[in-house]
Amino acid sequence: MELTRPLAEATAARSVRFVDVAKRFGEVVAVERFNLAIEPGQFVTLLGPSGCGKSTTLNMIAGLELPSEGRILIGDRDVTAISPADRDIAMVFQSYALYPHLTVFENIAFPLRARRRRTSEAQVASRVTEAAKVLGLDQLLQRYPREISGGQRQRVALGRAMVRRPTVYLLDEPLSNLDQQLRVQMRSELKDLHLRLGATMLYVTHDQGEAMTLSDTIAVMSGGRIEQYGAPKDLYRNPANLFVARFLGEPGMTIIEGEVHAGRFAAQGVTLDLPDELAGRHSRLAMGVRPEDLVAQDPAVAPMVGTVRTVEFLGSRSLVRADIGPVLASAFVEPDIRVRAGEAIGLAPLRADLVRWFDPRTGAAIPATAAVRLAP
Amino acid sequence: MIIRRWLQVALVLVPASIVALGPILWAVSTSLKANDRIFAVPPRLIPDAATLTHYRRLLAEGVHWSFLNSALYAVAAVAASVAVGAIAAYALVRFPVPAKRLLLVLFMAALAVPSYALLLPIQSIFVQLGLFDTRLALPILYAAHVVPFAVWMIRAHFVAVPIELEHAALVDGYSRAEAVWKVILPGAMPAIIAASTFGFLYSWNDYITATTMIDSPGRRTLPVALIFFQGFHGRDWGALMAGVVIATVPPVTLFLIFRRYLIGGFSDGSVKG
Fold first, then answer.
1. Residue (of A376, A56, A97, A84) closest to A224 by Cα position
2. Measured between beta carbons, which residues in chain A are less than 8 angstroms from residue B189?
3. Distance from A1 to chain B by nearest Cα, in Å?
4. Which residues of A touch B173 (CB under 8 A)?
5. Based on the number of CB atoms within 10 Å of its own CB, is A372 exposed (0-12), middle (13-18) or buried (19 or more)?
6. What is the tally of helices (H) and strands (E) in chain A?
7. Neighbouring residues of A305: CB distance < 8 A, sequence distance ≥ 6
8. How far apart are CA B194 and CA B146, in angstroms?
9. How far apart are CA A302 and CA A307, in angstroms?
10. B23 vs A: CB within 8 A
11. Under DSSP, is residue A267 helix (H, G, I), strand (E, B) or coil?
12. Whole-Å CA distances, B267 to A130, B164, B179, B245, B254
């Protein structure tokens, strides 16, 4: 796969903006007060569990769904009510949506042959061949979709998207039908493609691994709203609320709700000293800590004590799941830890500043400036 | 073991093919025999002196015009019913048509009504509309009979076409009509061919509607024209069988060309991406 210059130069990446967009299906609100600005050339992922409105959002940019409210702009152009054909976007579908009665060549050529594009056959041939070469499909051009493998179909779908150099690429869970190995491979090829095309790409997935590795920016969605928008590292380190804290990470943050008494955070099995600015202001708090930020300690002195439920050996480390009060906490510990199910385990945050604090009523994160002092 | 299986299959298939093909073979044989040999005893399947007299007779009587009439009516009926059927099927699949299920049941119910039960009322309506004994009468009635079947058949295929295919075509720069024409219809070809073949066979084989709605010899269909060889010429078996042979050619040809779509080939060329 070598870089073909014209391909990179001809792509004019555009920005995408949502202004107060909402989408309702009857009584059901699919997307609500959606505001998002995507810079030209960015790779942005809409990440969320199924039913969170991410695909609906993508379909609205594509023009396959009309928003109930608000406006969508691509570049400077208001495309809210413009037909999909006139938006100059390309889309890769989860099911690939290859045309079964057309060969691979004809599938990739299909967008170029649309009447409104008026591409000469010579141009069609050269551009299809070029795209096929980039994607390693040159040997398969005369085959039908049913005659090629899942990974190859995926590439054909990509080829059909890139052949006409759209201003925005929309990718709707394009890797979810591939097996694990192929998915990882296509993931890096996609990233590579994005770097070379320099195009604006909007990607929808429920797989946080994909979102983290591919994206410049991630919008975590739930219930039709954006929960948080930011760089993958930011989202992971500083979740804006309990939803993002639980959703990101495999497993997600352990969240423990508790009372604040005399400058200390206390929950069943947990006692932590609080930073002053938190201690005075809240009577209830929720603490969040990533599994890799916990270390095992002697239960007699540990600030968090629980009962081991399972220990999973993962090679370089072990994942311990332990009941701390009503919460099932997760912690990555050294691989040869000697605890068994039913035994007591003590855990402690690696550093006090790695603990995140949330308001349990609203779920919003409370920025803590000072470090939490660990209880003795 | 294999031989026993084979024998069992043969035991069923040989009588079945004799029942199905025997009359046709006998018709071919009779159509090639001279008049005095037709009832010869013992009967011979392969005529000792084949003759084309009966076929020449048919031509002389102008039966080829009836053949063309039949073909014209059938083709017009098929074109109309498949066009209407495909559009209706698409609408029933993709648009929020009110009382969709009821409509489909009605279509099915229409199939269940025997067409001859309605012949007399339709005849008097056609007389009043000035359609009786015109070249429009039979295409209209045949199409009306085939449309419900076409709707069901094509709809079943459209239902299986994922909406993403259409969406992909829209995003690729095509209008909705173009998307349907270039992506959805080619995928539904098996269903369309099956509906067309059914429609053609129905129209081609019909006798009772044709004899009720058409009076003039010049607008007769083939089955109606052939019947006259029974009465007027005192059972002219040779000519009659020659006519039967000619009448069999188009359906058999159609079947041979499209058998892939007609026998369990309905999912062929499928929609899986």
1. A56
2. 101
3. 25
4. 85, 111, 114-117, 164
5. buried
6. 10, 21
7. A269, A270, A299, A324, A344, A345, A346, A347
8. 12
9. 13
10. no
11. strand
12. 34, 19, 21, 33, 19
By C-alpha distance, which of A254, A214, A253 is closest to A232?
A214
Per-residue confidence (pLDDT) for residue A371, from 0 to 100:
44
Chain B interface disruption, residue of A74, A88, A94, A95, most B CBs within 10 A: A95
Element (H, E) at A296: strand A294-297
List Cβ neighbours of A161 (8 Å cut-off, separation of 6 or more): A90, A91, A92, A169
- Interface contacts (A, B; CB < 8 Å): 77
pLDDT at A376: 42
Identify whether the C-beta of residue A20 lies closer than 8 Å to the C-beta of residue A34.
yes
Give yes or no for a contact between A22 and A67, defined as CB atoms under 8 angstroms apart.
yes
A351 to chain B nearest CA, in Å?
Answer: 50
Alpha helices (H) along chain A = 5-10, 54-62, 104-109, 121-135, 150-162, 180-197, 208-214, 232-237, 242-247, 276-279
DSSP string, chain B: -HHHHHHHHHHHHHHHHHHHHHHHHHHHHHHTS-GGGTT-SS--SS-SS---HHHHHHHHTTHHHHHHHHHHHHHHHHHHHHHHHHHHHHHHHHS--TTHHHHHHHHHHHHHS-GGGGHHHHHHHHHHHT-TTSTTHHHHHHHHHHHHHHHHHHHHHHHTS-HHHHHHHHHTT--HHHHIIIIIHHHTHHHHHHHHHHHHHHHHH--HHHHHH--SGGG--HHHHHHHHHHTTT--HHHHHHHHHHHHHHHHHHHHHHHHHHSS-TTTT----
Q: Is A269 exposed, middle or buried (0-12, 13-18, 19+ CB in 10 A)?
A: buried
Q: Is the peptide bond before A251 cis (omega within 30 degrees of 0)?
A: yes
Taking the CA of residue B157 as centre, how many other CA atoms within 13 Å lie in the half-sphere pointing to its CB? Answer: 31
Residue whose pair of structure tokens reads 């694990």 in the numeric block? A180
Neighbouring-strand partners of residue A19: A71
Q: Which residue is closest to A163 within chain B, CA to CA?
A: B172
Residue B107 has pLDDT above 90, yes or no: no
**Which residue from A59, A99, A164 is facing B183, i.e. has the nearest CB?**
A99
Paired residues of A23 in beta bridges: A31
Q: So what's the ipTM on this one?
A: 0.81
* Confidence (pLDDT) at B147: 92
Cβ of residue B268 closer than 8 Å to a chain A Cβ: no
Element (DSSP H or E) covering residue A271: strand A270-273
Q: What is the pLDDT of residues A106-124, one digit of tens each?
A: 999 999 998 777 788 999 9
Global confidence as pTM: 0.79
- Amino acid, res. A98: L
Rounded to an integer, what distance in angstroms lies between the CA atom of residue A29 and that of residue A53? 9
CA-CA distance, A213 to A206, in Å (whole number)?
Answer: 13
Contact B142, B74 (CB under 8 A): yes
Residue among A137, A130, A141, A140 nearest A165 (CA):
A130
Rama region for A173: left / alpha / beta (φ>0; ψ in -120 to 50; rest): left
Q: What is the pLDDT of residues B18-59, one digit of tens each?
A: 998 888 888 888 888 887 778 877 887 787 777 888 888 888
Residue B94 sits at the chain A interface (C-beta within 8 Å): no
Cα A215-A220-A224 angle, rounded to 5 deg: 135
Task: Report residue B128: phi and psi, to 5°.
Answer: -65, -35
Per-window interface: A 135-174 vs B, CB < 8 A: 145-146, 153, 160, 164, 170
Cβ atoms within 10 Å, residue B19: 9
CB contact under 8 A, B164 and A97: yes
